[in-house]
What does this fold into?
Amino acid sequence: MSEIQIHRAGEARSPSAEFAAGFGHKALGGLRFISPILIVLALWEFSSRAGLVNAVLLPPPSAIFRNMGRLFQSDTGFWNSPLVGHIEVSLMRLLAGYGMAAVLCTALGLLMGINRRVYAFFDPIVTVIMPIPSLAWVPIVILWLGMSNATIIFVVFLTAMFPIIYNSAAGVRSISKKHLWAAELMGASRQKIFFKVLLPGAMPYVITGHILAVSLAWRALVGAEMLAGAGLGLGYMIFDARTFMDTETVYAGIMVIAVLGLLIEKGVFRPLQRFTIERWGTVRAG
It folds into this structure.
């Protein structure tokens, strides 16, 4: 065997070695992500225990986690615990409102990007209504729909629709005309141009719009539940705990909201990016 072959054989790595290297890389990335959070929690714990801050207004994380554990307990099982019930209701409301916005507003945004007349009609409407805070609609929507799930779902839909519409339209309009001309010269039909050129080219904008929509809708959901929660939802749980100065439950609810938001982004949209725009080469992989 020549020296070159020996050198190449030494460079080749077995599948187990590649798996170990990939796992180590992911573990290091996870450690880098969680380390600042752990440091903040440690400083928070010390400050509260040492009396540097009011332990009633800012209870130590250990007490918050113990209280969270109690909220996850129930005589009839984990899935019937109070906190799980609030989480299920909030996620159902988020899914319903965002789901409608994802379907209707993505289609409208793409259509606005394709058709100038549609864009000219809807762009002023979106521009005028978008700056209005979604919670400003809650009092009037309560008069329309009452203190019900429909009110909160409507607010979630209203919040999610604007980032989706705006980014979907901007994605289509950002595609260079040269790409469209090239596809036309090669004899591509309108359907193929849409699915092979317009949609892949606009996809980074579309996914970004959906990420922003879920993030904003999640915030609006919690706020709407505080005003019209009707006894259920994480927002209602936090607002109700505030009434009784139960700050441990308030912070427990806030932590659950943060973790769920992170899981939605990393567990849903990150794989979607990996299997679409990164796989197509539209954007550079992280």
About this structure: DSSP finds twelve helices and no strands in the chain. Residues 6-10 have pLDDT under 50 and may be disordered. The radius of gyration is 25 Å. Residues 3-58 form one domain.
